[in-house]
Amino acid sequence: MDSTTAAPFDNLSAFERAVERARAAAEAYFGGETPLMPDGDYDRLVAGIAASTRLNPHWNDRGVATAVAAGTSGGDVRHATPMLSLDKITTTAELQQFVHTLNTCMAVVEAKFDGMACHIDYRDGRLVRAVTRGDGAAGDDITHQVTREPGIAGLPQELPHPWTGSVRGEIFMSTNDFERANAARTASGKSPFVNARNAVAGSIRKLDRAYSVPMSFAAYAISGSGLEDVDSHLERMAHARLSGITTAAMLTAGALPAGTLIYGHRAEDLQRAVDTLGDLRPRLDFPIDGAVIKADSRVVRTRLGSHSSAPRWATAYKFAPDTGYSILRDIEVSVGRTGRAGFRAVIDPVTVAGTTIRYASLHNADWIAQQRLGIGSRVSVVRAGDVIPRVIAAAGEQQEDVVPWIPPTRCPQCDQPWERSGQLWYCTVPTCSLAALLTDAASRDVLDIDGLGEEVAAALVEAELVRDLADLYTLTVDQIAEVSYVRAGTTVGRRIGVTTAAKLVAGIAAAKERPLARHITSLGIRGIGHRMGRTLAQHFGTLDALRSATIDDLAAVDGVATITACWIRTRLYDVEAVLDRLIAVGITTVHDTTTPASQGSLAGKRVVITGAIPAMTRTQAQEAAERLGATSAASVTTKTDLLIVGAGSSARRKLAKANELGIPTMSAEDFLALHAEAVST
Ligand code: IVH
Questions:
Q1: 172 C-alpha vs ligand 1 centroid, how far in Å?
Q2: Is the pLDDT of residue 68 over 50?
Q3: What does 290-359 look like in DSSP terms, one character per residue?
Q4: Catalytic residue ranges
Q5: Which of 29, 93, 124, 398 has its CA 20 to 30 A from that of 55?
Q6: For position 276, what pLDDT does the model report?
Q7: CATH 3.40.50.720 describes domain 430-511
C-alpha cells in the first residue's frame, strides 16, 4: 500500500492509542512473539501516525514513524516490525552492567553469526517469503534466491507440519562454502569476495548469477502458531528445531562443554559462556563475530522493551576480528618432510585475534594462480583452527600495480624440476626435505627426541653432519657441540654447546627403542603418516617383511591405494641403504605384539578416539587401541564400532554423531583401565 495516502488521526487520544498499538506490535515482534496484527494493518497504522505528525508536529509518535521513514532506503518490503540491531559490548564490566539490567532474569548465550540477517515467513508449512533485514525497517524480497537450487541449508522450503509463522535468523557461508564461492567467482572472471559476509550479501543480491553458491541458515527468533503461550526462548527455538529449521544454538551445541547453550543469570557464568564461544571460534567452520546474550523470557523482554535502535533485553558481546587484511609482499617456497613444496606468504604485519602476523601459509601453486595472487595483492588472512595463519583469499578490488607471481618451476634448494602430481608439487631429492624430515621425525608423536627443533635440524644438515635419517644415530656430543644454529636459512653464530649436545645424543639413543610403527613414519615417505605407519607395522610385523613387500602386498593392506603402494615401493628402494644402517644401529624392527591383535579386548573393532585422553597424545591413544586389537579411524561413520570419548569440547561433535548412529561409546577412564589391564597381563 502507499503509506503516504493514509488518513491522519483526528484527535490526540486516538493518535496516542494508535502509537501504543504500533509500539506493542513492534515489541511483540522483537520478543519473538506472534505478530499482533497483519503486515498491512501495521503499515496503515504507522502511515496514519506519520500523516498525523506531519499535520501536528508537536504530537509525539515515540519513534514509531521515524523508524519507518528511515526504512525507505532499506528495500521494497517493509518489516511488519522493525529488525533492530544489537547494542555492542566488549568488556566484562559492560557485561556486568547488562546483567544488572536483567535483574536476575535468566539469559541464554548464543553465537552471533556473521552473515546476513533475514526474516522468513511460512504459511501452512511452506516458505512463502524471505526478506533481508535491509536497514531494519525495510528490506529486499529474496524469496527467489532462498528457494532456488540448491536452497539454503537449515532453511527448509517445506516443513513437516502445516505451520504458519515467521523465523528470523542469519544466512551465512561456512569456510568451505566461502572458498567454493570464491573459486566459482574467480573462474567467472570476477574479483573474489573480501569475506564470507560480503560473499553472502553479494550472492543473495545477485538474482541471475550463473553459478550455485552453497549457503546456510541459523535461526535466532521464531513466532507463530502454537507458540503464542510459549514464554521461553529455548522452548520456542526447540519448536524451530523440530520443524527442521537449524537454530543458532544447534550449530554450537555439539561443541559447548555443557552440550547445550548456556543458561544463567550470573555475570561470571555468562562471561564464561562467552569465553567458551570465543575459544571455540577458530575451530568452527562458520563465521561468528561475537556472542549474543539475551533474556530467555518473553515477558521479561516485553517488560524491558527497546530503545530507538536496539532491544534492552539483548546485547552483542563482540570478539576481536579473526580476519585481517594485508598486502602480499613475497611468496616463499620451501620443501617439507615428504618433499612437498610449501608456499608461504610474506605480508605486511597485521594483528589478527591479538597476534601480529607476518607470514601465512598458502594452499598450493594452482590456488595461488586461480586467486590471481601477486606481489602487492590485497589478501585476507585468518587464524584458522590450529593457530597457523592462512591466506584465505585475495581480498576485494585489487590495486593496478600487482606484480604477477610466477611459481618457480624448480626446487629452490637443488634446482631440480618439481615432480607434479596433481595440485601438489614435490622435490624428490632427499636432502632438500632433510631438515623438515628430521624435525618431523623428532616430534613427540614420532620419535619424541627433545631438542631437535627446526634450528638444530637445519644446523646439522648445513654442517653436513647429517645427510640422511640414519646419520642422526651416529652423531657424537663433540660433533654436535661445535655446530652453529641456523635460523631461516642463515647461520646465527651461536654454537649448540656440550650440554645441549649431550641431551640430544641421549634423546637420539632413546629414540631407537620407539615402536616399529614410529620408525616407519620417521622415514618421511609420502603417504606414510602416523596412522599408515601403524597400519604397515601391524600388517607386516617386521621391518624386513615390509622391505620385501611387493606392490601387490602393499596394495592388499587396508587403506592403501595402488598408487600409494607404487610410491611406497619406490621410496623403500630409495632408502634401502638408510634402512640397512638403521637396522645396524639397533632401531626397533619388530612390531610389538604383546597382545596379539586378534585376542585383544577390542579385537576387530573399528574405533574412533575423540577428545583428550589423560596423559596420552592422540597417537599414543591410537596405539593403545591398536594394542587391544582395534583399528583406529579418524571420523565416525556407520562402519564405526566404538567411540572412545575423552575430555574437552572437541569431543562433542563426534559424540553427537555416534549417538545419532547408535554407536556404542566408552569413556576415556574405561579405555585406560582396559589398556592398563591388557598391558599388565
Ligand atoms: S538476536 C533485536 N541472535 O546480529 C535483534 N541476533 O548486530 C535480535 N545476529 O541484526 C537479534 N546472530 O542479525 C540475535 N544469535 C543471534 C544472532 C543475531 C547474529 C545478528 C542479527 C542482528 C545483528 C545485530
A1: 13
A2: no
A3: EEEEEESBHHHHHHH-B-SSSBSSEEEEEPPPSEEEEEEEEEEEEE-TTSBEEEEEEEEEEEETTEEEEE
A4: 112
A5: 29
A6: 85
A7: no
Mean pLDDT of 641-670: 85
pTM: 0.53
Ligand 1 proximity of 607 Cβ (cutoff 6 Å):
no
Q: Ligand 1 pocket test: which of 109, 110, 112, 261 has the largest number of ligand atoms within 8 Å of its C-beta?
A: 112
Q: Give the long-range contacts of residues 507-513, CB within 8 A, separation 24 or more.
A: 507/448, 507/449, 507/450, 507/451, 507/452, 508/449, 508/452, 508/472, 508/473, 508/475, 509/473, 510/449, 511/442, 511/447, 511/448, 511/449, 512/473, 512/585, 512/586, 512/587, 512/588, 513/588
| Spacing, Cα 288 to ligand 1 middle (Å) | 11
Tell me if 317 CB under 6 Å of ligand 1: no
Q: Cite the residue boundaries of each domain of the chain with CATH code 1.10.150.20.
A: 430-511, 516-584
Q: For the segment 351-394, what is each residue's pLDDT rounded down to a tens digit?
A: 776 678 889 989 888 888 888 889 999 888 887 544 578 887 77
Evaluate if residue 253 carries a pLDDT over 70.
yes
The model's confidence at residue 210, banded by pLDDT at 50, 70 and 90, is: low
pLDDT of amino acid 31: 40
With a 6 Å cutoff on the Cβ, whether 225 touches ligand 1 is: no
Q: Ligand 1: which residue has its CA nearest to atom 21?
A: 117
Class of domain 516-584: mainly alpha
What is the second-level CATH architecture of the domain 323-404? Beta Barrel (2.40)
- Provide mean pLDDT across the span 54-77: 64
Strands 314-318 and 126-132: unpaired
| CA quadruple 322, 326, 330, 335: dihedral, nearest 10 | 10
473 pocket-lining for ligand 1 (C-beta < 6 Å): no
Q: What is the mean pLDDT of residues 506-527?
A: 94
Atom 12 in ligand 1: which residue has the minimum CA distance?
A: 112
| Of 220, 236, 274, 313, best ligand 1 pocket probe by most atoms within 8 Å of the beta carbon | 220
pLDDT in tens, 386-396: 457 888 777 76
Q: First vs last Cα of the chain: how many Å apart?
A: 83
pLDDT at 33: 44
Domain with CATH 1.10.287 in the chain: 12-72
CATH code at 606-680:
3.40.50.10190
For a pLDDT cut of 70, what percent of the chain falls above it?
Answer: 89
455: Cβ below 6 Å to ligand 1?
no
* Domain 88-318, CATH among 1.10.10.10, 3.40.640.10, 2.30.33.40, 3.30.470.30: 3.30.470.30
Q: For a pocket test of ligand 1, which of 29, 81, 83, 170 has the largest count of ligand atoms closer than 8 A to its C-beta?
A: 170
